[in-house]
């Protein structure tokens, strides 16, 4: 059974700092891995999607890496801003089916 | 980008009533939609997979007679929580997978609605 773990559960940083969020999964046979952002009371915004054959994806200040063999992914956020404050979710897909989510990392960026 | 509309965003109801939640893909067709549930401080957990024109597939431990799913068209799936009880209070969110063949489906890109916060008194 696939399990997704995110560390840390919560993170508070000053504005401008670079930071890394971690995600690990127990079954390396994944189809793809996605990072989402969830704002309080809101739905999910997809940030980055990494196919199983890829090693990383970049979008603006965000960079996500994937190491299938070790069952790990990281989300790197450069020059953090208060607007980045949200809960970040990592999810893996089994085949072309549903996503299995971690519990998320709640990020707070202080001005 | 693709948009998924989910309504209502928040429901407060009395115990024993039924609540219907709609999930619509606005600018694409979705043969498959997924329904997830999130309890406080927990992960989003899949409840069921909804396929257009056929019966939904429920995850273990999810009562199909309590959580009725209908996916009658390529743009609409509904989840009805029948005889809701306080323990059903949760955040329900749907996602839709683009039905187009080729690149998008192959990447298994799913678009999420904004979610429904259900509170049963």
Keywords, separated by commas or semicolons:
heterodimer; A: 111 residues; mainly beta; 6-stranded mixed β-sheet; 5-stranded antiparallel β-sheet; globular; B: 121 residues; 4-stranded antiparallel β-sheet; 1 helix; 11 strands
Biggest β-sheet of chain B: count, sense, barrel? 7 strands, mixed
Strand content of chain A: over 45%
Main β-sheet description of chain A: 6 strands, mixed
Strand share of the residues of chain B?
over 45%
Total E-strand runs of chain B = 11
What is the multimeric organization of the chains shown?
Answer: heterodimer
* Major interchain interface with per-chain residue totals: A-B, 25 and 26 residues
Order of helices and strands of chain B: EEEEEEEEEHEE
Structural class designation of chain B: mainly beta
Radius of gyration of chain A: 13 Å
What integer is the average pLDDT of chain B?
89
Q: Count up the helices of chain B.
A: 1
* Residue runs with pLDDT of under 50 for 5 or more positions of chain A: none
The ordered string of helix (H) and strand (E) elements of chain A is EEEEEEEEEEE
Broad structural category of chain A? mainly beta
User: Radius of gyration of chain B over alpha carbons?
Assistant: 14 Å
């Amino acid at each position: 059974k696939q399990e997704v773990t995110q560390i840390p559960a919560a993170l508070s940083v000053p504005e401008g700092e670079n930071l890394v969020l971690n995600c690990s999964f127990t079954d390396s046979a994944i189809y793809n891995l996605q990072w989402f952002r969830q704002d309080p009371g809101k739905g999910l915004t997809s940030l980055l999607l990494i196919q199983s054959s890829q090693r990383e994806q970049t979008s603006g200040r965000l960079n996500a890496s994937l190491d299938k063999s070790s069952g790990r992914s990281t989300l790197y956020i450069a020059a953090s801003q208060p607007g980045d404050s949200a809960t970040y979710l990592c999810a893996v897909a089994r085949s072309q089916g549903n996503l299995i989510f971690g519990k998320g990392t709640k990020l707070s960026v202080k001005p | 980008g693709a948009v998924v509309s989910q309504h209502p965003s928040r429901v407060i109801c009395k115990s024993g009533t039924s609540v219907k939640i709609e999930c619509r893909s606005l600018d694409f067709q979705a043969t498959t939609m997924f329904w997830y549930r999130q309890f406080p401080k927990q992960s989003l957990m899949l409840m069921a997979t909804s396929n257009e024109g056929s019966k939904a597939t429920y995850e273990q431990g999810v009562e199909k007679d309590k959580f009725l799913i209908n996916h009658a068209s390529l743009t609409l799936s509904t989840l009805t929580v029948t005889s809701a009880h306080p323990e059903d209070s949760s955040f329900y969110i749907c996602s839709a997978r683009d039905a187009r063949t080729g690149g998008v489906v192959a990447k298994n890109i799913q678009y999420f609605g904004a979610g429904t916060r259900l509170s049963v008194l």
